[in-house]
Amino acid sequence: MQVTVKELVQQNNEKRKILTPENQEYYENMLVYIRTNALKGERATEEVLLEMLDHLLEAQREGKKAEDVFGKSPKELAEEIIKTLPKESFKDMLDFILEMVFTLFGWYLAIGGLFPLITKQNQTIHSGSLLLAGVLLISSVVVLLYFLFGIIKRNAFEEKRKKNKVNWLLGLLFALLFVSGVSVNFIVEPFGPTITISYLVQFGLGCFFLLAAFLYKKSRESK
Asked: How far apart are CA 149 and CA 155, in angstroms?
């Protein structure tokens, strides 16, 4: 039976714990750099990373360091490895994007529909406000992916303190965009044609989207 992508990642996570601090930092920098190439096949990427890790662990048992195995230019080596990886299929890329979009809209609808569910009050939806909220949420997806696969990659070989700073900025910007999308109906004067829906609909749709995102994730990890 073929090992799933999730199992490959789990094996990598467990085996990395055996590395010395120096070898771990070297390897994880390359891991981040290689993984952030979203257009490359996820399975092929994880298989190569695990193969590299096994090779490094074997060398470590012989008293060698990561630089002795992979050289002193990890970024150049990572670029060469990336070139050999096959491209991700259009279907798998679409599944990943839909997973992200469903997750965001699921939380947006579930959070926004929680209060009406408790009070059991039907809602009046303004289509213009809903469209604005959707644009903000989709923008948060675009920003998240851009930072995740762009800036984090460029900082993969930087000092740990600088990488932590980038991660904080990423999280802050993403949170601001997401909160803006969730709170737009409370901050901006509602506008556009109105639609009245049951208090069950919005929360129910949110749960449906979150379930769809979960199923997409499970499907992706089981390949």
From this structure: 11
pTM: 0.69
Q: What is the pLDDT of residues 186-216, one digit of tens each?
A: 677 777 888 888 888 889 999 999 999 998 8
Distances (CA, A) of 68 to 62, 65, 113: 11, 5, 57
First CA to last CA distance, the chain: 11
Residue 16 near residue 52, CB atoms below 8 Å: no
Tell me how many degrees the CA angle 68-71-76 measures, rounded to the nearest 5.
Answer: 160
Report the alpha-carbon distance of residue 103 to residue 208 in Å, rounded. Answer: 10
Q: CA-CA distances (angstroms) from residue 166 to 10, 139, 151, 158, 198?
A: 25, 19, 8, 10, 42
Choose among 45, 51, 56, 53: nearest CA to 5: 45
CB 204 within 8 A of CB 138: no
For residue 106, with 0-12 CB atoms within 10 Å meaning exposed, 13-18 middle and 19 or more buried, which class applies? Answer: buried
- Alpha-helical regions (H) of 147-198: 152-154, 160-187
Q: Which residues of the chain, if any, have pLDDT below 70? A: 1, 38, 144, 148, 151-152, 154-156, 158-167, 169-171, 173-174, 177-186
DSSP code of residue 162: H
Token digits of residue 105: 């809209």
